[in-house]
Design goal:
single chain; 804 residues; alpha+beta; Gyrase A, domain 2; Topoisomerase, domain 3; Neuraminidase; 41 strands
C-alpha cells in the first residue's frame, strides 16, 4: 500500500474502540439473555433451527449432530462445542425447571458426568418450548439476516410465557454478569396476571406472590429476605439447604438421608467433600457414607455413631459442605439491546410489553388474512348467484386471461376474486357447498369484527394475554419443589457446631486454663490419694475449678475488678495431664492481674444480677445487662480500694440469701436485696465487719435443703445444715462456721452442696480428688472437719468444685 494512503492512528484510541466493540459484541450477541424471551442468541438459534426442521415434541427424535450442524451452518458460525453444550443444558432437568429440549441418550447427570458425543444422542423440542415459538409465522416478531444474509432468523421469539424468570439464566460478559434463578411457572404467571389486572402494582405486592426461586433440584430455601432484596433491587443472596431426613437403624442408631441437594451442586463431588471433612474431623460422629441413589430418586446415606447428636451433625454438615450454599441473584438482562439490572416488576412488565406487541401484530396479521379471505368469499358468493352467466363467459372465452378480464368487466371483481372463480371446482356449485360458503363468510365477518375490536383497545388484548397465560399455567404448572423455610437464612455460628455438654474448667494460679470432659475424673472414696489432674510447674497451683457447659459464656473477673468474656468452647480441650493454655493468650490480662472469679452465664437478662464481694468484705449488686457488651478485650466491672481485691462474683436474684465466709471460720448470712443496685463502675457497700487479720475467702448463695461445705488448706472439710446459721443483717460481725486450728489450716473455699452432689478438691501440686459429697460427715457449726485428701507436707488445698 502506498504510504500516502496510510492513516495515522493513535494506538490507545484504537485499542479502546476495538475493546468496546468486542465488549458490546459479547454483551449483546453472546453472554446476556433478552428480557423478552429470556434466551441468549445461541439458545434462540437452536430452538428456531429445530422448529424449522419440524423437530417438535410430537415428532421422532433426531440426531443431535444434525441439529448442531443446522445451527452452525445456518445461524451460529461458532464452535460446535458451544452449540452442543447449550443444547445439552436445555435438556437437563436438574438445570432447567422446565426443560426446553427432550433428550434421548446420555445428556449428563447431576454427578457431573459429561454427556455423550452428539453423534450418539438424539433430541427434539419439548412441549413447553413450542410455546416460545407459537405464532412466529404470523409476523409477530422481527427477523434479520443471518451471518451471510442467505437466511433470516428471528430477533426475538414470541414467548407465550416469561421464560427469563421461569427458566433463569447465567452468563459472564465483559465487566458484568447475570445469574437469574429458575422460578415456579404458576407463581410467575400469577404475578403477570396481577400486573394485567392492576397495572400500578409494585414490587412489594408481587413479592407476596413470588416469594422465592423454585429450583429444579428442590431442597430448602432458608428465609426470603435474600430473594426479596433481589426482587426489589436486582441483587440478593438466597441460602439453599439440602433436605435431610432422619432414619432409625438397628441397634438404636440413626442415619441421615439426603433426598434433595442445593441447585447446581455436583452430587459426586459433594460426597467426596463430605468424606474429606469427616477425615479432617470437621464433621464428627459419622460411621459410614454412601450413595444409594437410583431411578426412584436421590438417596445419600450418612450413618451416625451411637452417641451422635443428630442436630449437631446436621449443623456440621451445613457448615462444612455444600449441603448448604448460597445462590447470588443478579437480575441483569438486555433491554432494547442494552444491559440493565432489573427488579421483578420491571422484568415482568418488560415481558408484558413484548407480549402486548406480539399479540397486537398477530391480530393485525390474522385480520389481514381474514379480510383477504372475506374478499375472496364475497366474489365466490357473487359468482354462485350468477353461476350460469359466469359459466357462459368462461366457456365463450378463448383463454384464461380473456375470461378473467371479461369477469372483472362484467361483475366488478378484483383480480384475486376473478382468479379464485376461475380456480373454483365444479363441486362448489352444490347446495351444501353454497351453505358452507355462507357459513364461512358469516364466521369471517365475526372474526374481522372481533379482531378490529381487539386492535381498538389494548385492555382487550391484555385480556387475551391473560387467558393464554392461565391456559399455559393449567397445562404446564406444577407444585413448588423448593420448600421455603421462614426463618433467618443464618450463617451457622460456631456454637451450632459444638455439642452442649458438661465440662470441667480449671485455672491455675499462674494463669493456665483448660477444658476437660466432666467424666475425666472418676469418682473415688473420701480419703483416697486422688489422680493427677495436670502437670504444673513447681511454683504453680490450681486456683479455680468449676463445672459448666460448652455453650455458656464465661465472665472472667480479675482481682483488680476488670471483666472479660469468653465462650466455653473457645477454651481449648486438653488432656488430663496437660497444664492447658496460658490465659493471657486468650484474654488481654495485664501484668500483675489475675482471675479471681469466673461466672458462667447462659444468657443475658435484666431479671438477674451479678453480686461481687471483695477481700475487705465490700459487696456490690449490678444488673447483669450492664455487662452484656463485655467482650474479649474487657471492661471495668467495679471500682476497688487500693488495698482491696475482688474475691468472688456470682449471679443472684432479688431475694436470694448470701453467705460470706472468711478464712478464720466466720460466716455472715443476709438477703441479697439488702444490697442496693448500683451501676457498673460504682463501689460496693459493707457486707460484714471483719475481725483483725481476717479476710473474706468465699461468697456462696443459700438454698434451702442444702449444706454449707467448707474446705481448709490442709485438706479438712465439713458440711453443716444451713438451718444452723441464723440470718443476720448485712454488715454484721457474723458467727462461727468452723473451728480453725493448726491441724486444719485456714478456710480456703466454701460451697453449697446437696446430698447427691460430688466434690472435686484440687491441691497446689495439681492433685485432684473426686468423691460423693455424702461421704463427708455432717457436723455442727462449731465443730472441726474431717480429712478429705491426704497431702504431702509441702502441699495444700487451693480450690474446690461441686458436681451436681
Amino acid at each position: 500500500m502506498p504510504l500516502d494512503q496510510l492513516l495515522p492512528v493513535i494506538i490507545e484510541d484504537e485499542m479502546k474502540e476495538s475493546y468496546i466493540d468486542y465488549a458490546m459484541s459479547v454483551i449483546v450477541s453472546r453472554a446476556l439473555p433478552d428480557v423478552r424471551d429470556g434466551l441468549k442468541p445461541v439458545h434462540r438459534r437452536i430452538l428456531y433451527a429445530m422448529y424449522n426442521a419440524n423437530l417438535t415434541h410430537d415428532k421422532p427424535f433426531r440426531k443431535s449432530a444434525t441439529i448442531v450442524g443446522d445451527v452452525l451452518g445456518k445461524y451460529h458460525p461458532h464452535g460446535d462445542a458451544s452449540v452442543y453444550d447449550a443444547l445439552v443444558r436445555m435438556a437437563q432437568d436438574f438445570n432447567l425447571r422446565y426443560p426446553l429440549v427432550q433428550g434421548h441418550g446420555n445428556f449428563g447427570s447431576i454427578d457431573g458426568d459429561p454427556p455423550a458425543a452428539y453423534r450418539y444422542t438424539e433430541a427434539r423440542m419439548s412441549s413447553i418450548s413450542m410455546e416460545l415459538l407459537d405464532d412466529i409465522e404470523k409476523e409477530t416478531v422481527d427477523f434479520r439476516g443471518n451471518f451471510d444474509n442467505s437466511l433470516e432468523e428471528p430477533v426475538v421469539l414470541p414467548s407465550r410465557f416469561p421464560n427469563l424468570i421461569v427458566s433463569g439464566s447465567s452468563g459472564i460478559a465483559v465487566g458484568m454478569a447475570t445469574n437469574i434463578p429458575p422460578h415456579n411457572l404458576g407463581e410467575i404467571i400469577d404475578a403477570v396476571v396481577r400486573i394485567i389486572d392492576e397495572p400500578t402494582v409494585d414490587d412489594e405486592e408481587l413479592i407476596d406472590i413470588v416469594k422465592a426461586p423454585d429450583f429444579p433440584t428442590g431442597a430448602l430455601i432458608m428465609g426470603i429476605d435474600g430473594a426479596r432484596s433481589a426482587y426489589r433491587t436486582g441483587k440478593g443472596i438466597v441460602i439453599m439447604r439440602a433436605k435431610i431426613e432422619v432414619e432409625e437403624r438397628k441397634g438404636g442408631r440413626q442415619s441421615l438421608i439426603v433426598r434433595e441437594i442445593p441447585y447446581q451442586v455436583n452430587k459426586a463431588r459433594l460426597i467426596e467433600q463430605l468424606a474429606e471433612q469427616v477425615r479432617a474431623k470437621k464433621i464428627s460422629h459419622v460411621s459410614d457414607l454412601r450413595d444409594e441413589s437410583d431411578r426412584s430418586g436421590m438417596r445419600i446415606v450418612i450413618d451416625l455413631t451411637g452417641n451422635a447428636n443428630v442436630q449437631l451433625v446436621q449443623n456440621q454438615l451445613f457448615k462444612h459442605s455444600n449441603l448448604q450454599c448460597s445462590f447470588g441473584i443478579i437480575l441483569l438482562a438486555l433491554v432494547d439491546g442494552a444491559p440493565k439490572t432489573l427488579t421483578l416488576a420491571e422484568i415482568l412488565k418488560h415481558y408484558l410489553a413484548h407480549r402486548l406487541e406480539v399479540v397486537t401484530r398477530r391480530c393485525r396479521f390474522e385480520l389481514g388474512k381474514a379480510r383477504a379471505r372475506a374478499h375472496i368469499v364475497e366474489g365466490l358468493r357473487i359468482a354462485q348467484d350468477n353461476i350460469d352467466e359466469v359459466i357462459s363467459i368462461i366457456r365463450s372465452s378463448r383463454e384464461q386471461k380473456e375470461a378473467k378480464e371479461r369477469l372483472i368487466e362484467r361483475f366488478g371483481f378484483s383480480d384475486l376474486q376473478a382468479q379464485a372463480i376461475l380456480d373454483m371446482r365444479l363441486h362448489r356449485l352444490t347446495g351444501l357447498e353454497r351453505n358452507k360458503l355462507e357459513e364461512e363468510y358469516a364466521e369471517l365477518l365475526k372474526t374481522i369484527a372481533y379482531l378490529e375490536e381487539l386492535l381498538a383497545d389494548d385492555r382487550k388484548i391484555l385480556g387475551v394475554i391473560k387467558e393464554e397465560l392461565l391456559f399455559i399455567k393449567e397445562k404446564y404448572g406444577d407444585k413448588r419443589r423448593s420448600e421455603i423455610v421462614y426463618e433467618r437464612p443464618n450463617d451457622l455460628e460456631v456454637e451450632d457446631l459444638i455439642p452442649e455438654e458438661e465440662v470441667v474448667i480449671t485455672i491455675s494460679h499462674s494463669g493456665y486454663i483448660k477444658r476437660l470432659p466432666v467424666d475425666t475424673y472418676k469418682s473415688q472414696h473420701r480419703g483416697g490419694r486422688g489422680i493427677l489432674g495436670l502437670t504444673l510447674k513447681e511454683e504453680d497451683f490450681l486456683e479455680h475449678v468449676f463445672v459448666t457447659t460448652t455453650h455458656h459464656n464465661l465472665l472472667f473477673i480479675t482481682n483488680r475488678g476488670k471483666m472479660y468474656r469468653l465462650k466455653v468452647y473457645e477454651i481449648n480441650e486438653a488432656s488430663r495431664q496437660s497444664k492447658g493454655t496460658a490465659i493471657v493468650n486468650l484474654l488481654p490480662i495485664e501484668q500483675g492481674e489475675r482471675v479471681s472469679s469466673v461466672v458462667p452465664v447462659k444468657e443475658f437478662t435484666d431479671q438477674v444480677y451479678i453480686l461481687m464481694a471483695t477481700k475487705k468484705a465490700l459487696v456490690k449488686k449490678t444488673n447483669l445487662m450492664e455487662y452484656v457488651h463485655c467482650r474479649r478485650n474487657g471492661l471495668n466491672a467495679t471500682l476497688l480500694e487500693e488495698d482491696d481485691e475482688l474475691i468472688g462474683a456470682r449471679l443472684v436474684e432479688k431475694s436470694q440469701e448470701i453467705f460470706l465466709v472468711t478464712e478464720k471460720g466466720i460466716c455472715v448470712r443476709f438477703e441479697s436485696n439488702e444490697v442496693r443496685i448500683v451501676g457498673r463502675v460504682a463501689k460496693g457497700v459493707k457486707g460484714m465487719r471483719l475481725r483483725p487479720d481476717d479476710n473474706v475467702v468465699a461468697m456462696v448463695d443459700c438454698t434451702n435443703g442444702m449444706n454449707l461445705l467448707v474446705v481448709t488448706t490442709k485438706g479438712h472439710g465439713k458440711q453443716t445444715d444451713i438451718s444452723q446459721y441464723r440470718r443476720t443483717k448485712r454488715g454484721a460481725k457474723g458467727i462461727i462456721t468452723m473451728n480453725i486450728s493448726d491441724k486444719s489450716g485456714n478456710i480456703v473455699a466454701a460451697r453449697m452442696i446437696k446430698p447427691d452432689d460430688e466434690i472435686i478438691v484440687v491441691t497446689r501440686e495439681g492433685l485432684i480428688i473426686r468423691f460423693p459429697g455424702n461421704q463427708i460427715p455432717q457436723g455442727s457449726r462449731t465443730r472441726g472437719g474431717v480429712m478429705l485428701i491426704r497431702l504431702s507436707p509441702q502441699d495444700f488445698v487451693t480450690s474446690m468444685a461441686v458436681l451436681s
